[in-house]
Amino acid sequence: MHFPPHDNSNKPIVDVEDSRVPLNYFNIVKLKPGEAFEYQTPGYETCIVPATGTVHVDVEGDRFESVGNRSGDVWGGEPEGLYVPTGAKAVMEAVNETEVFVAGAKYDKVLTPFDVRADDLDVVQYGSDDTKTHRKIKHILGTKYNVRVGRLLVSELFTVGAGGWSGYPPHKHDTDRLPNDSRHDETYNFRFKPNNGFGLQLEQREDGKTGDAWHLTDGSTIVLDKGFHPCVVAPGYEMYYFTILGGLSQRPLVQYFQPDHAWQIETIPGIKDMIAKFK
Predict the structure, then answer these.
(1) If DSSP codes are grouped into helix, strand and coil, which group holds residue 223?
(2) Domain that holds residue 86
(3) pLDDT tens string 18-46
(4) Which of 25, 84, 87, 148 has the fewest CB neighbours in a 10 Å radius?
(5) 5: Cβ–Cβ under 8 A, 6 or more apart, which residues?
(6) How far apart, in Å, are the Cα atoms of 138 and each of 19, 88, 131, 220?
(7) Taking CA 75 as the corner, what is the angle to CA 216 and CA 44, rounded to the nearest 5 degrees?
């Protein structure tokens, strides 16, 4: 499902127990210097990631200073994040004008908050210009935090160069049938450079049948509960998307690649390393 760009007035775009992606939570919070925002998400662990700007955050008395260092847009520096345990009260205070992503996944245990700074990111680059799949992924809550996070995976994906495919070959993760597939709901928020760029998100719910496509523009949000779901950006534009994955029964993601196209895993440089980073 596609949510066109809109002013969400700091209210969740994907709230707790959403009927479409019940394993996810997503909010975009915009603050002016000195403004504060408080939230709690019972039953969901979350991660605060400034898209732009800097925030101080208090999590149940634990203070984290100056999270986020980007200016202008998501291309203006490296991401940083803050893990907020399930149900904890978090208060963020804007140092400057900020736009903050709040990502969440359903989880019933309470862990310990921690911050992820630019030097802590787990980065993987894969694909090639020849295969039209050249991408860089910056994992904020990736494999290195498996023992500190319950079910939440958070990353940022950037195209390298302009134009081409992502989430390719087509794959899905909508059924708990290990070792072939895992159930993970997924939410994306897209940005384009220049910001009048555009792309398409495809979703093929049944193999062999025609699927759906949505027109992506700067600020589009996509929620995915099932189906094969590659996306593509138009030539001449760079694409970014903020990615939230929440697992039903485990944190590691197992992607099932569409059989008709899975052979291309062997033709895309570095894609196996990319797949492993979501484990």
Answers:
(1) strand
(2) 2-276
(3) 999 999 999 999 999 999 999 999 999 99
(4) 148
(5) 217, 218, 219, 220
(6) 29, 26, 21, 20
(7) 70
- Tracing tokens 């596609």 back to the chain, one arrives at 2
- Tracing tokens 């209210």 back to the chain, one arrives at 11
pTM of the predicted model over 0.90: yes
Residue 126: C-alpha distances to residues 96, 138, 191 (Å): 34, 12, 20
d(CA 184, CA 255): 9
> Tell me, what CATH number does 80's domain have?
2.60.120.10
Whether the upstream peptide bond of residue 85 has omega within 30° of 0, thus cis, is no
- Which residue, among 143, 120, 124, 144, has the nearest Cα to 135 in the 3D structure? 124
**How many CA atoms does the CB half-sphere of 200 hold within 13 Å?**
11
Residue 137: which residues within 8 A CB-CB, separation 6 or more? 123, 124, 125, 126, 155, 156, 157, 158, 274, 277
Residues 6+ apart with CB under 8 A from 22: 106, 185
Q: How many domains does the chain have?
A: 1
Residue 57: alpha-carbon gap to chain centroid: 21
